[in-house]
Amino acid sequence: MITKILKCSLILVTLSATLACMPFQPDSLTDICESEPQICDDLHQIGDCRYKRTSLIRARYLDKKEPNEAHTRLLLTELDSYESCLELTLFMQFTRNKERKTQRLENYLAAQNLMEAKLKETKGTQDPHLAYFLWTHHQDLAAKTVFLRAANKKGLKDIRLLTKLATIYSKEDPQRALDLLFKALRESKSISALPQNVFTSMMTIFYQEKEFEQAYIWALIAKEESTEEEFPINLDLILQKGLINGKKMILNEDALEDMADKYHQQLTEGAFHLQAPQLRRLN
Fold first, then answer.
1. Whether the Cβ atoms of residue 39 and residue 110 lie closer than 8 Å to each other
2. Per-domain residue ranges of the chain
């Protein structure tokens, strides 16, 4: 879908940004697991979400070696991302591989336990990013106040706060959630600056609101940005739903793919300026 040249450029930009931000990184995951086996052994090596598992282990390593708020934020973000990824696979059946199903569940529970343990250390935080996790996972009302005070400031441009606030509104006010997500896209200078779940969040809102064409566009972008070998979203299902239930039937698949290409290029160049469309709110 997206041109290979564009994809390669994105990989190089992302890699450069990652290396620039990491104060220290071992040569390989093997080095980390050999030197600190306790941060690897409770997360089985299985095919599911393996790249997110790698990112999580690196975040655990950094947090252990250099504990500070930045590394705690990174660790909680990676834990949340890994949990979300595993949730999509928990109910997939592998009748010929029961061990893998068990290990998937064990990894999910291990990630939850790690999140709980880390959140206990953040009690009383004034950091809005840490407060978000403390509020949404522990219903900590003081943390809620800290997060909402920062997230509702006029002129907010913090991409991660915008996407976290959108998550809060995604069910009760999907239009506001979309407005916040589109603002995050406009504020980003490159696609690598955006949280990985932003596109699946947009796809989910559009899908639930029966805006299947928009859901398909953002699903394509989410797939392009996915680091997993097996993309967990069924694109054909979105197309079929559009044909069965949508008043605007999806018969223009090629045009939607072109639109996804256009948006992806704009996001890569930091030149995305669209406002969120108004939802039709169909029953």
1. no
2. 1-151, 154-276
